[in-house]
What we know:
This protein is α+β, with helices and mostly antiparallel strands. The protein has a single domain, classed as 3-Layer(aba) Sandwich (Aminopeptidase), CATH 3.40.630. Helices cover 27% and strands 27% of the residues. It is globular, with a radius of gyration of 19 Å.
Amino acid sequence: MIIVEIHKTLAIKFIQRHHYSPVMPKLTKHYLGFYENENLVGALSLGWGTQPRQTIHKMFSNLTTKDYYEIGKMCMTDEMPRNSESQMLSLTIKWLKKNHPHLLFLYTMADGIMGKCGYVYQASNFLYGGSYYTQVYMMENGEKLHPRSAKLLLQENAILHSKSKMFWLTSDYMVQNNIRFIEGMMFRYIYPLNKKAKKLLNSSSMNWTNAYPKDKDLLWYDKTNRPKKQIDKPPFTFVDVVYNRKNVGEISNNLEEFFA
């Protein structure tokens, strides 16, 4: 397998075909492609999450966004052997050390709310930095919608309640529109890219260990009504994308033109 930097549109086409979620991160700097016998078999994006400065400051108060990249999306074709994703990560780390030697850390999150514990990061010797709860809306079509993307729904909800502004959907509005408010977990992982980074781990506000989470540690709650209740894994799906269309359709609509 070889690694090369590829065009944004090619990467997004591949990711939206093979990743469980077609919603793309906005702050992406690099799209890496992984080839086997001249066939694109994997893709990985590098950049930052929605709050890059706050993310690094929570872990290392004296570092900035220039000191790390975050994995946004990573996926492979189903035909590849089981350990291929670990090989992807190994190649990515080598690529970063060669092309961005100033970077200290490669950071990523395992999407526990989607049932992901981060086994591929565990197998690649990333360090685990704990978990936190996150909340999302599950729409009537099964689509996962982040609260930051619910602006139009919040405006409609505010009008119904004669409010000028709202920050969270109300229970009555969610029940009326068959929306569920789901709470689940996110798991932090980090990989130090050099000796300086390894030393900095001791000054981190988080305890980085190899005491990894497993499937038994996954938890979900339905908070649509109070009190919240523990539930099984929610059946999220992106088969019919409606509410995330802005972060999905822009590239998809131009793919035929790009590959013509």
